[in-house]
Automatic annotation (TrEMBL):
Residues 1-40, 66-103 are annotated as: Disordered. Coiled coil: none annotated. This is Coiled-coil domain-containing protein. It holds the Pfam family CCDC34. InterPro entries: CCDC34, CCDC34/181. Residues 3-118 form the Coiled-coil domain.
Length: 144
């Protein structure tokens, strides 16, 4: 009976040790799974942080490019406006020069017309005076 009791105690001890070993193994597996889960989460968070950093950098580059484009566009519009203004000034100057030439031509024409009129008047006067002189000479000499 002692022997049976000892065997039973040994068997119980083996069962207890087996149970403890299974619990330790179960704890180790849970710990291992938890570590793997944490590692996956850490890698995922790292990946997400890197992606967020890349996205932020891309957005910043886009904003910078957009700002540069707006600055370039503003500069181009200012250049176009300045060019248009210069062309308008040039056109106004050309129109003013044409007007001045026209006025000068009209003045020269009026002076020429006045001079011609005066010359015609003088010519007529000379003709009249010459005729008068001839008439008076003929009258003096009593040829008429």
């Amino acid at each position: 009976m002692n022997l049976q009791l000892e065997k039973r105690k040994e068997k119980q001890e083996l069962e207890r040790k087996k149970k403890i070993a299974e619990e330790k193994h179960k704890e180790w597996v849970q710990k291992k799974n938890e570590e793997e889960r944490r590692e996956k989460e850490r890698k995922l968070l790292k990946k997400m942080a890197e992606k967020a950093a890349r996205d932020l950098q891309r957005i910043q580059l886009q904003e910078k490019a957009k700002g540069k484009y707006k600055e370039w566009l503003k500069k181009k519009r200012a250049e176009e406006s300045e060019k248009k203004k210069k062309e308008e000034e040039k056109e106004q100057k050309r129109v003013a020069e044409l007007q001045e030439k026209k006025e000068k031509s009209e003045k020269i024409f009026r002076e020429w017309l006045q001079h011609t009129h005066t010359m015609m008047s003088i010519s007529i006067l000379w003709q009249c005076q010459a005729s008068w002189c001839l008439f008076s000479s003929l009258f003096k000499w009593k040829l008429i």
